Amino acid sequence: MSAQKSVASWKGSWDKGLIALCILVSAAAWMATPQLITPYPLQAPWFESAAFFPRVTLGVACIAGLVELYQRRRAVEVADSDELDSSSASMLQALGMLVLFGLYMLAVPWAGYLTSTVAFLMASGAWLGLSWRATLTLSLLLSLTMWWVFVKVLKVYFGHGWLI
Question: Which residue has the higher pLDDT, 98 or 150?
Fold first, then answer.
C-alpha cells in the first residue's frame, strides 16, 4: 500500500520532475565544464583551474537538488507549506529586476565585471526604492567584495571590458 502511495505522490508531481531535470542538466554541465571552457589549461592545478568555480557551483546545485527531492518524497499540501506568501509581491519590480539582470549580463563582457556590477547594483537599488546612500554604499561594498572573491580568490575569468 505504501509503495502505491509513494508512486502516486510522484505521478502528478511536475515540480519533482523539474527538480530531477535540473539535477541531470547540472550533472551534465559539471561533466562537460572542461570542454565548455576554451582554452582550458590542462596543466593548472584543480583548485586554480578555470573550471573550479563552475564545477563547485554545479556540484552544489546537484546536491541541493537531491536534498530537495529527498525532502519532497512525501506530497506536501499547500496549506502545510512554510514557503513565503507571494500575494504581496510586486510583479512590476520582479520583471524590472529581470530586465536589469539581462542588461547586466550583456554589459559584463563589454564594460567589464566591476564596472557593470556597480552599475547593476546602483540601478537595482534605485529601482527597488532604496535610499541613494544605502544604494551607493551597498553597491560599492558588494561589487568590490564580489570582484575580489570571483577574480582574485576563485580566479574566474570575465574577460577585459573597456573599463575595469
Answer: 98
Nearest in space to 22 (alpha carbons), one of 71, 73, 53, 58:
58
Q: What is the pTM of this model?
A: 0.57
Q: Which residues of 87-123 are buried (b: 16+ CB within 10 A; e: fewer)?
A: eeeeeeeeeebeebeeebeebbeebbbbbbbbbbbbb
CA count, 13 A, side-chain hemisphere, 139: 20
Domain boundaries, the chain: 2-78, 89-153
Rounded distance between C-alpha atoms, residue 83 and residue 88, angstroms: 13
User: Mean pLDDT across the chain, nearest whole number?
Assistant: 81
Spatial CA neighbour of 51 closest among 30, 20, 21: 30
CB distance 69 to 19 below 8 Å: yes
Q: Which residues contact 29 (CB under 8 A, 6 or more apart)?
A: 36, 54, 58
